[in-house]
Specification:
Layout: E1 3-6, E2 9-12, H1 16-27, E3 32-36, H2 65-81, H3 86-89, H4 108-125, E4 128-132, E5 134-142, E6 145-153, E7 159-163, E8 166-169, H5 175-179, E9 184-185, H6 191-194, E10 211-212, E11 215-219, H7 233-238, E12 252-255, E13 260-263, H8 279-282, E14 284-286, E15 300-303, E16 309-310, H9 322-346, E17 352-354, H10 356-359, E18 376-377, H11 385-388, E19 405-409, E20 413-415, E21 425-427, E22 432-435, E23 447-449, H12 461-464, H13 467-487, H14 491-495, H15 498-511, H16 520-523, H17 527-530
């Protein structure tokens, strides 16, 4: 028999945005049901195994106190449970992996543990209920409202229907937007649609960023851990897309600073080097040098590298069937395993060894594919390239300041190669704000987005999609939902009232410690000036279409 649940807030999707929304609403006294298709909360940080991509000011206090708490708990998890060197454990900015991509590179399980800690008191009190292995399959609506969402338990096939006055879509692909008939956009808008200088000449719903199936590796020289040869290995070894400088099974890639071909190998410096720009050190999640002598006999790196991007086919869009999606996901998995097999057999590294235990899967690949782009709501307000990109902004003014800002973030407009054959697009951005209007659908009254499905464009999704921004979006949505329940109102009414918007802003900044403005000293700073690097961050690229 199907199960029925009632709650104050339903959060579909347990990624960082979903976790932040649930945690925020629970802290504000509301009951929440969270559903998650895997058995790990955390999304891109855990189930997708992607170390945090964060802005240069992440350690300087310019971040949400909730996200800062998550980072602190990850570090404290290492201090409590790992044999760190005493001087390393004492470092406030402990980085277990010393990876170059982030100031905090760690094993996915450490983030799972930290998130479980954050939610533990609320789960114990009954405020938060988590349904693991649950996938949304249908939504019931009346007019402009979502009445309920039905989920399938992927282990048993049983169905659970959840009814709530407010519903949050924090799924990785914006699944509720499709199921509930919410007006949305997928793929690339045209330049005529948005006025964005770097938008596509014509709208293309199939122009979606590549996905990647990540995996952790250790290196044991002298041993042989070669995986079985993938069935599509010959395809990846010989196939050459016109916009890519060589076959995907190679060290060749595109330098996004110049948009020209270059090489980046796995080991260009000693494996124990503290810093290096080679692939091994870029997303290293465990550095032996951080731990007591003899504790570990190998570093561990996380493979999320340019040549493992899968851009053959999108996962959603017009005419994309579930069978098409499954086929694309299978091809993506085979690409990742083919790249590993190529390194082991043709590049002389048979000692590269998968670590299934670190991602809790049988084959050593992450539980879920890394998704960079989803369906996006048609929102009351859409963030455009012109609002955030340095090249489009008046000199010295920084990003657009929004009167209804409910959070802050920063990343470049970073688009990976797409399923329409478009190469990288990478535009430097100023530190930006998250406008409330981008979180409110044009029509639906009680559904809110909390992942990569907010009111951005194909371009600006590229800077609003990363870990701390997704967390801030979730916090804003959780606070907005709790406020609407307390005040017997709805998001459209809040967005249409300066006074109510200010109430939500005070709730965020005062009660929750979530900033909604960058300080003036940061707001007009270009990241290339903030980073300690002698190299300019990114050159303006040209758009290349095959």
């Amino acid at each position: 028999m199907p199960t029925e649940l009632r709650t104050d807030l339903l959060v579909a999707g347990g990624g960082l945005g979903g976790v932040a929304a649930a945690l925020t609403a629970a802290r504000l006294g509301r009951d929440v049901v969270v559903t998650e298709p895997t058995d790990w909360l955390g999304g891109q940080l855990t189930a997708q195994a992607v170390p945090s991509d964060e802005h240069p000011w992440i350690e300087s206090g310019h971040t949400s106190s909730g996200y800062a708490d998550l980072r602190t708990r990850i570090r404290d998890h290492y201090r409590r449970t790992y044999p760190l060197r005493a001087e390393v454990a004492a470092q406030p900015d402990l980085n277990p992996g010393l990876g170059m991509v982030s100031r905090l590179c760690h094993e996915p399980r450490a983030a799972v543990a930290a998130i479980d800690e954050l939610l533990a008191p609320h789960r114990s009190s009954g405020r938060i209920t988590v349904l693991y292995h649950h996938t949304p399959v249908s939504a019931a609506t009346t007019g402009d409202r979502v009445d309920s969402v039905t989920f399938r338990d992927d282990r048993t096939g049983e169905h659970t229907t959840v009814t709530a006055p407010f519903v949050v879509d924090a799924t990785e692909l914006g699944d509720l937007l499709d199921l509930a008939g919410v007006e949305h956009v997928v793929g690339a808008e045209s330049r005529q649609d948005t006025g964005e200088p770097y938008a596509a000449p014509a709208a293309d719903p199939m122009d979606q960023q590549a996905v990647t199936w990540c995996f952790p590796l250790e290196y044991r020289p002298g041993e042989d851990h070669t995986v079985e040869r993938p069935g599509s290995y010959d395809h990846w070894k010989t196939h050459h897309d016109p916009f890519w400088p060589g076959p995907q099974l190679s060290w060749e890639k595109i330098d996004i600073r110049t948009m020209r071909g270059t090489e980046n190998r796995i080991f260009e410096d000693p494996i124990d080097a503290r810093t290096s720009r080679d692939l091994w050190h870029f997303r290293r999640i465990r550095a032996r040098s951080q731990f007591e002598d003899g504790a570990f006999d190998s570093d561990i790196t996380l493979v999320n590298w340019p040549n493992t991007d899968y851009w053959e086919a999108p996962l959603v869009g017009p005419g994309v069937t579930p069978e098409d999606r499954d086929r694309a996901l299978a091809r993506c998995r085979e690409l990742s395993l083919s790249y590993l097999y190529w390194m082991q057999t043709e590049q002389g590294y048979p000692g590269l060894r998968l670590r299934p235990d670190l991602v809790d899967t049988p084959d050593g690949l992450a539980k879920s594919v890394y998704v960079r782009e989803a369906r996006r709501i048609r929102a009351r307000f859409t963030v455009l390239e012109q609002h955030v990109a340095v090249v489009d902004r008046p000199e010295g003014q920084g990003a657009e300041r929004f009167a209804d800002s409910v959070g802050i973030g920063h990343y470049n407009i970073d688009l990976h190669p797409s399923s329409s054959g478009v190469s990288y697009i990478n535009l430097e951005c100023y530190p930006f704000e998250i406008p409330l209007g981008a979180l409110v659908p044009v029509r639906m009254r009680n559904l809110l987005p909390a992942a990569k499905n907010i009111g951005t464009t194909h371009l600006t999704n590229g800077c609003y999609r990363l870990h701390p921004v997704e967390w801030s979006i979730g916090e804003a949505v959780g606070a907005l939902s709790a406020y609407c329940l307390d005040e017997a109102t709805e998001p459209h009414a809040v967005a249409g009232s300066a006074a109510r918007t200010e109430d939500v802003q005070r709730l965020l900044t005062g009660t929750l410690g979530a900033p909604v403005r960058w300080p003036a000293s940061v707001a007009t700073t270009r990241p290339s000036q903030a980073l300690r690097s002698a190299t300019p961050l990114y050159a303006t690229p040209e758009r290349r279409v095959r």
